[in-house]
């Protein structure tokens, strides 16, 4: 019965988020608000703009690994390990041929060493060996961006899965020569799992459960770090616009079946490849942990569109976001039919 009540509570939260009517915090949230609780959810529109047709350059990337207590769910907190105090870490945007200098600093108040392994790197450990950094220290390395694509990065300090689950992941976009086809808006979304001793829906501080982590049985599934984290920080666009979603899976363990309810992906950059031919008119895309994709959507009809993993039980554990599309109704494409009015029999 307890599990059933938790599922019902989660369903109610999702439904309220979908229609945009969540207005009041719980009593536990009010109590937590008096404590230094960090906003760890990266807004989906928080990413650098396109690079265009510029030539190769020397690009400097500065990252700080910071451990902070953040909001996991309504009334619940968790100690996140982050890049630059957000989950995911910043989207790094470079061009093929760039020389990239990565400077990593580990906050002096961290409990653990941290580093970074970028899947876009050709070199030992993806940079992990060069950036193993103790609390209070810093490290640096450079690499040449040899191949265009959308790549994941993450902490690779043992236990690697622990560091990733705690929020240490992000993406690096290596644009091809000349850049990508333009769209009106771009968004940055990543999926992950969090393994806690406390059951889903429990209020208060949550701690990592290592048996659940090793057995791959998470309590929470998250977009951008928090349960239903994209119900307040929504993706926002307008009818007639084209959008691109850069989507990745930090994991550390679960594959995503990424889907937007009520939309069709016009273009899919499969497996994060930017040199391959795009795939058109796709309903759901499979993204492995440590993998990525980019999808383009032309927006035809206003309304709220729900981002999900089509392993839909995960919605009940925090995995849902909202794309809000504003604009004029388009009844030629989509419209409700009113039921005919019934009249009394005249006989």
TrEMBL record:
Its cofactor is Cu(2+); Cu(+). InterPro entries: Cu-oxidase-like_N, Cu-oxidase_C, Cu-oxidase_fam, Cupredoxin, NO2-reductase_Cu, TonB_box_CS. It catalyses: nitric oxide + Fe(III)-[cytochrome c] + H2O = Fe(II)-[cytochrome c] + nitrite + 2 H(+). CDD domains: CuRO_1_CuNIR (cd11020), CuRO_2_CuNIR (cd04208). Pfam families: Cu-oxidase_2 (PF07731), Cu-oxidase_3 (PF07732). Residues 72-177, 217-326 form the Plastocyanin-like domain. GO terms for molecular function: copper ion binding; nitrite reductase (NO-forming) activity. It is an enzyme of class 1 (oxidoreductase). Cu cation binds at residues 114, 119, 154-155, 163, 168, 310. The keyword Ribonucleoprotein does not apply. Its EC number is 1.7.2.1. Residues 1-24 form the signal peptide. It comes from the Bacteria. The keyword Repeat applies. Keywords: Copper, Metal-binding, Oxidoreductase, Repeat, Signal. Binds 1 Cu(+) ion. Belongs to the multicopper oxidase family. Homotrimer. This is Copper-containing nitrite reductase.
């Amino acid at each position: 019965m307890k599990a059933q009540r938790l599922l019902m509570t989660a369903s109610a939260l999702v439904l309220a988020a979908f229609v945009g009517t969540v207005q009041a915090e719980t009593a536990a949230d009010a109590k937590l608000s008096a404590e230094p609780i960090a906003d760890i959810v990266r807004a989906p529109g928080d990413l650098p703009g396109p690079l265009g047709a510029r030539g190769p350059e020397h690009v400097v990337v500065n990252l700080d690994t910071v451990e902070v207590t953040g909001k996991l769910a309504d009334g619940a907190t968790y100690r996140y390990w982050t890049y630059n105090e957000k989950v995911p870490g910043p989207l790094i945007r470079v061009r093929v041929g760039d020389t990239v200098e990565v400077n990593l600093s580990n906050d002096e108040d961290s409990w653990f060493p941290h580093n970074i392994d970028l899947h876009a790197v050709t070199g030992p450990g993806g940079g992990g060996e060069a950036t193993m950094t103790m609390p209070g220290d810093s490290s640096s390395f450079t690499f040449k961006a040899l191949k265009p694509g959308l790549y994941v990065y993450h902490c690779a300090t043992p236990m690697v899965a622990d560091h990733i689950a705690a929020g240490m992941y992000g993406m690096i976009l290596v644009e091809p020569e000349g850049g990508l086809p333009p769209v009106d808006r771009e968004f940055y979304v990543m999926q992950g799992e969090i393994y806690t001793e406390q059951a889903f829906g429990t209020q208060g501080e949550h701690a990592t459960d290592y048996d659940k982590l090793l057995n791959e049985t998470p309590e929470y599934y998250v977009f951008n770090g928090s349960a239903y984290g994209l119900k307040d920080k929504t993706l926002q666009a307008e009818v007639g616009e084209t959008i691109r979603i850069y989507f990745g899976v930090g994991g550390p363990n679960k594959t995503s079946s990424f889907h937007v309810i009520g939309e069709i992906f016009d273009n899919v950059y499969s497996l994060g490849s930017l040199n391959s031919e795009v795939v058109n008119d796709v309903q759901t895309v499979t993204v492995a942990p440590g993998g990525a994709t980019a999808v383009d959507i032309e927006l035809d009809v206003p309304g709220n569109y729900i981002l999900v993993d089509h392993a839909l039980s995960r919605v009940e554990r925090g995995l849902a976001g909202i794309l809000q599309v504003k604009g004029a109704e388009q009844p030629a494409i989509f419209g409700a039919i009113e039921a005919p009015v019934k009249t009394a029999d005249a006989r």
